[in-house]
Amino acid sequence: MQSISILGSTGSIGLSAVKVIKTFPDKFKIYGLACNSNLSLLSKQISEFKPAVAAIGDKSAAATDFVKKLIKENRETEFLFGNEGIIELASRKTDMVISSISGSAGLRPSIAALDGCKRLALANKETLVMAGDIFTKLTIKKGVELIPVDSEHSAVFSLLSNLKKEEVEQIILTASGGSLKDYPAEDLKDVTPEIALKHPTWNMGSKITIDSATLMNKGLEVIEAHHLFNFSYDNIKAVIHPESIIHSMVETIDGAVYAHMGKTDMVFPILNALTYPAKIKNPFGRIDFTEIGSLNFRKYDSNKFPALDLCYYAGRTGGNMPAVLNGANETAVYSFLEKKIRFTDIIDIVEKTINSIDVINNPDIKDIFESDCEAKNIALSFIKMKQ
Known about the structure:
Layout: E1 2-7, H1 12-23, E2 28-35, H2 39-49, E3 53-56, H3 65-73, E4 78-81, H4 82-91, E5 94-99, H5 107-113, E6 117-122, H6 126-142, E7 145-148, H7 151-160, E8 168-175, H8 193-196, H9 206-214, H10 216-229, E9 236-240, E10 246-252, E11 257-261, H11 267-275, H12 289-292, H13 307-317, H14 321-337, H15 345-354, H16 365-385
Parallel strand pairs: 1-2, 1-5, 2-3, 3-4, 5-6, 6-7, 8-9
Antiparallel strand pairs: 8-10, 10-11
């Protein structure tokens, strides 16, 4: 029986993780649950799974009648509050931590998790985007097994496990193209959040859905893949695959291409992270190729969607630049969701922010957090200019 903590248990990844754990109660037990402010859903999870610890990121929630009642009704559960509480839960000893807190807020808990868990199932891509060199060295130093949960990286992880690195020519990450892949370029400036949030194949949170629409998400995944698999950026490619059936591919030096295919449901990469290297039969469904009919591929349009090229630039530059890129993007995306800027302003603001901050080579973790903060402040200044 493996003990598991889920950081971000009320988000889309967290809910899929809960579904997997609930399906195999003889194999997994929830030790800890953490969320920011979705107290209603957290309450239901606590009632069902009786975790030893529950952490609530919203510190002010501790004083509410709802939480006071929740604590009273669940005396066997220890409650922690604020970011410090989530970090404390992350550091507790467990077999596995699933790190799925959205955005840069997930970096500190991911680092803390290395102090207590044996295996880290990483769904927070910002951990490796912002601090890839630092974090991967820490996982080796602390002897923690790092398993990717992003569907694309889970696919590559599975494919590479059967190959020697010297046999691999390139990694090919697939992208659905997002909600706007067929949208006329001249109309992108008028896209509303409601339009951009209609993802054609995946059910995800709002921030990552907008990132998918700009192709920023795929760019962040390129940086993540670079750190996870230690491949040069020259050997990591991206291709638009609208059906999202092939989650990624690996090309070997002899020209053969190996594809990892599966349903568009995050339960599969989560289950893989929980059970690796074993495979277990599950009830989550199978692909019917006769229903799919065909699989299509196309190049991404860098003029229409420049985010991916910008990510390659930040990744190759290295140092603090990926953290700057990520911080500016987070700020711009949330401003778009609040209808403060246009869709086309998002990447413009990110690029201007990158050009406004000096490169720090070989940054430490303090430099990373300071660059993230600086990028967000500078991005906000550009946003104000557009209002």
